[in-house]
Amino acid sequence: MRIPLILLTLGLVSFNACAVEPPSTEPFAKRYDPHSITNAARAREVIAAYDEEKRAWENWYKEETAQCYRNFFVTYCLDKAKTERTEHINEARRVWLVARDFLRKERSEQAVKDRKAAEAKQAAKNAKMDAQPPRAAKAPPKTRDVTPRKPGEGHAADRVLTPEEEKANAEAYAKKQQEREERVAEQERKVPEAPSMTPEERIQARAERRAAAEKKRAENIKKRAEKAAEYERQVKLREEQKKNSVTGDLVPRL
After folding, report:
1. CB count in 10 Å sphere of residue 228
2. H or E element at residue 71
């Protein structure tokens, strides 16, 4: 009976002699009271402390398990080290969850404020644009005098653009207008959404913005088509005037 008792005593002595000092003996919740998390700075401090606490206990666990293989009761030592590490990390994690939820709620509230501010700014901009009087229609461009001149007469500044050049200018202008409208539509699609919205509400909000953007785009396309038609009419009118002017100069006078 004395031999087992002696072996047990030696095992306990060797177990205590090889134990690694734990990172902390004071509970994490006592050092970082969850009720003290009342602002974002404190919440970030707790999250950083939790990361450091978890890292310290993981390092302790590696050293402790290495020491366990030098003990007589290896399995008991390994189980005890694992339990101690898990309990301390879980206790610290409960405080970390409070800090995480606080930051999530703050970000959600800030997102709602930003969205409302963006909507109010856009509404004010739209109201300002609607209050402005409509712009007067531009007068049709004056046709240049294309009467044939003698060599040396006229000036380089009186050169008349060819139909191809005028068409190219009109296409470039229409392209710029379309790019501008696409940028405006993209900015409207980027209006932040509240994280508290349900998936159905997000889908509905996006669908409404998309429908409004498509409607505006269709109206702009219609306006461009009307301007293009008016431009073609002006071009044909100038061509007829040019033709009549040249024909009149070529008719021999009696």
Report:
1. 14
2. none
CA atoms of 31 and 46, how far apart (whole Å): 10
What span, in angstroms and rounded, lies between the C-alpha atoms of 8 and 14? Answer: 10
Beta strands in the chain (DSSP E): none
Cβ neighbour number for residue 80 with a 10 Å cutoff: 15
Please name the residue that has the structure tokens 């073609």. Answer: 232
d(CA 123, CA 158) in angstroms, rounded, equals 47
Would you call 200 exposed, middle or buried from its count of C-beta atoms within 10 A (0-12, 13-18, 19+)?
exposed
Nearest one of 149, 51, 158, 38 to 99, comparing CA atoms = 38
> Which are the contacts of 10, defined by CB distance < 8 A and separation ≥ 6?
72
Q: How far apart are CA 5 and CA 57, in angstroms?
A: 33
SS3 37: coil
First-to-final CA distance of the chain: 151
Sign of CA dihedral 105, 109, 111, 112: positive
- Mutual angle of helices 163-189 and 199-250, in 10-degree steps: 170
Tell me the mean pLDDT in the region 95-120: 92
Q: Note the pLDDT tens digit of each residue in 117-174.
A: 999 999 888 888 878 776 665 656 655 555 545 444 444 444 566 777 877 887 888 8
| Confidence (pTM) | 0.44
